[in-house]
Amino acid sequence: MRAPERSVELTQVTEWEDGRVRKVQDALAAEEPLEIRIGGVPLTVTMRTPGHDLELAAGFLLTEGIIQSAEQIAGLRAITLENGLRSNVVEVELQDSDFDPEDLQRNFYAASSCGICGKASIHAIRVRGLRQLESGFRVDPEMLCRLPEALRAEQAVFSRTGGLHAAALFDGEGQLIALREDIGRHNAVDKIAGWAVLEKKLPLSQHVMLVSGRGGFEIVQKALAAGIPILASVSAPSSLAVKLARELGLTLVGFLRGRRFVVYSGEFRCVAAPGPGGSAA
């Protein structure tokens, strides 16, 4: 997989190794602000890695509850400057939407490390219309164990920079469907959600999402907004993430490494119930 344009920047650094010093060229994950406007009115500025900006905007609108389907997006474009270069602005036009910026109880400025910063309250997120997930989807636990390697193999920007989060979408057989990278883990998830919006594949009710970082509350609510029944991460979830996952029936998997993982919610989708001796029944 090729790295998106402008997602990597090169710089000169000084390397010290075993007493030797040398000047080398290093690759950095790019970080730039992206402003999303609705009808010409600025909605939010998020720090992101350039690439898949239209998906990021569409996914953000979905996971923030501003839209529920692609049909509500009447227009979506990246603003181009007079010199022909793309700016860091995406313009959105909505239709069949009762969205009113004055009703939004959030300062939408989001640092790349924490998409939830600035929300007026946890309650404002939970009343967004997230629905109970269907319970029919099942996967083989052996398949889950193969996903981290599949994700790492396709991380084009991470392989050059070592400094990027990723979100990957898989089908029930473990086939990679889409992968997006970003300096912010919540942005990577929004890019996947936006891909699904623009490809008109919602809800993602027969898919598994794997994120390279931790499974925090915001990541869980974004997965729920896209209808994803299984969310896995290579690190730990937060307590609030676990509570929300249990409330709405999301299968939440953490510490997915090697041949071990921990299921915090919805274990019926990926493991059999343990028997009296601790083994699967």
Question: What's the topology here?
Answer:
Elements: E1 8-17, E2 20-29, E3 32-38, E4 41-48, H1 53-63, E5 73-80, E6 86-94, H2 122-126, H3 141-153, H4 156-161, E7 165-171, E8 176-182, H5 185-198, E9 207-211, H6 217-225, E10 230-233, H7 239-248, E11 251-257, E12 260-265
Parallel strand pairs: 3-6, 9-10, 10-11
Antiparallel strand pairs: 1-2, 3-4, 5-6, 7-8, 7-9, 11-12
Helix pairs in contact: 1-5, 5-6, 6-7
What would you say this structure looks like, in words?
- With 281 residues, the chain is an alpha/beta fold.
- It has two domains: 95 residues, Ubiquitin-like (UB roll); 129 residues, 3-Layer(aba) Sandwich (Cytidine Deaminase, domain 2).
- The protein has seven helices and twelve strands.
- The strands form three sheets. It has a six-stranded mixed β-sheet, with helices on both faces.
- Strand 1 and strand 2 form a beta hairpin.
- Helix 1 packs across helix 5.
